[in-house]
Amino acid sequence: xxxxxxxxxxxxxxxxxxxxxxxxxxxxxxxxxxxxxxxxxxxxxxxxxxxxxxxxxxxxxxxxxxxxxxxxxxxxxxxxxxxxxxxxxxxxxxxxxxxxxxxxxxxxxxxxxxxxxxxxxxxxxxxxxxxxxxxxxxxxxxxxxxxxxxxxxxxxxxxxxxxxxxxxxxxxxxxxxxxxxxxxxxxxxxxxxxxxxxxxxxxxxxxxxxxxxxxxxxxxxxxxxxxxxxxxxxxxxxxxxxxxxxxxxxxxxxxxxxxxxxxxxxxxxxx
Amino acid sequence: xxxxxxxxxxxxxxxxxxxxxxxxxxxxxxxxxxxxxxxxxxxxxxxxxxxxxxxxxxxxxxxxxxxxxxxxxxxxxxxxxxxxxxxxxxxxxxxxxxxxxxxxxxxxxxxxxxxxxxxxxxxxxxxxxxxxxxxxxxxxxxxxxxxxxxxxxxxxxxxxxxxxxxxxxxxxxxxxxxxxxxxxxxxxxxxxxxxxxxxxxxxxxxxxxxxxxxxxxxxxxxxxxxxxxxxxxxxxxxxxxxxxxxxxxxxxxxxxxxxxxxxxxxxxxxxxxxxxxxxxxxxxxxxxxxxxxxxxxxxxxxxxxxxxxxxxxxxxxxxxxxxxxxxxxxxxxxxxxxxxxxxxxxxxxxxxxxxxxxxxxxxxxxxxxxxxxxxxxxxxxxxxxxxxxxxxxxxxxxxxxxxxxxxxxxxxxxxxxxxxxxxxxxxxxxxxxxx
Lengths: 271, 435
Fold this sequence. Notes:
By secondary structure, chain A is mostly helical. Helices cover 75% and strands 0% of the residues of chain A. Chain A contains 13 helices and no strands.
């Protein structure tokens, strides 16, 4: 195999550029404000592990993490439950109606979140769900559906027609076709959508702040974190809180990313 | 093509609905909170979030209040967008009873908009009129003058002096704290020659905005300045233009640290605390934080005012003092017969001498009530601050007067810390003020 030193160097450089902010965040979480500003990339002179405890207690991150996990999980279950059958139907239908429906989903991209904010607030108020986690659980899947359906439709269109016919001849109905043929083959797509949307749900701030609110019982971790900001913020504590916020989603991503790679490479090589 | 079987549809639908129902069941609902509210609670939104130095003292008041009265506090922390948060909650029919918030930006218009109620009568009825400082009450009146309706009860007063690091001044050969702008320019040159930054300021946020106004009003009397801040007319008012020109002269003389336009308040604090700059303008809320920085900066700092130019409208160096920090605004719901008694018990508890002292000790507030709080001022800077009145003249704090134009004004002033000319600055301010 031919060596490509330039490519290797560039790859490492790119990796370093990506790692630099993470390193900065991690070391800042163990420093005082003064150190963060005077020695930004140096290791801490004194490792302030108590910053994590302070952030956890002060912003009540435990409850906030629980709320974020709950909202994200329910939202992702609902998203997949709605997007997978919709994508299946669109992938299997080549009619004008299907194209119109696909176009309608694509139009969802054209609506900027800010434009949807006020109508969504009004909707939450009218539904009696303002200031609750439940509204966020319902709203997030709705906002995620356009991208999820379009992505999954493309993945499901790669299912060979012969395989579908064969399964149908064996008596498989829609449910069996979906669960036994389409979903397994489109698994990389399902995992991709899951990762993508989980990250989006976890990081969502605007609607979580405006509609769910800052009450400690219901607020998400993205809303809890800014409570650490004051006129003279302890940036070490804020960075520690940010690490605690990022960590669960990083772990989830790492686990799911491996599954995605496995799914993508499964069957790629004949044995 | 296969037809969709009803069974398949039911399966998928049951899965989706089941997941939702299970999750909602797991989450619980708002009902317990609603019943608790009916059973004796107050909904409070506060600007003293968990990271604020006043949060601990606030919690002690709430805990004691709940213990004494049995009334629980449903506390919601208001972030930077606290005004939007409260307005949205009220629109949603979930109004808080009490908002602990600064008098700034949109909150200045809450009384007019019917969000909150006037509190003049409550101050009298609750026996606070005799103890509260008249100047504190006046700042919370409509128009900022005696006789105006009282929009809320001021609590967290502040002084906003200039901080001078005496060790660094001495090191640079500056023998005394500058009293005039010429002395300041001279000191800045000496500090720079010694490798020390002169005046640290967050040119892109509120700290830069306040320092700009402090300099810009140097030649203008308070009444005229209030009018200009409220209605505009920066370009058309010669004394204000002189002040703006003074600002650009100081900027061009490199009185501010390098790249001030790109710095925030956090940068300012860190630069000053770490000894990289010798001067900053910061409020009394930072006294406790400066001590907590662990650098010993509080022992090397003396407080004073901003140097005055010749021909200034003020005889002594200038500083801000105000009571438009955090105060209590009562919403219509809070003023309802079933709630107002609870509100009274809570608010009067805050004004108890020992409680005010607790806030002086923890958060370095300037007390809104008369009394001797020297014993609570354990922090050296707080102690110094309480006696600052004789050394400085107090200028007009812009907050109440610029109101909702605050954000666009700050954007204009970021340019002022860059390269904007006096004409560009005044035109930008006029445009931002008139919306």
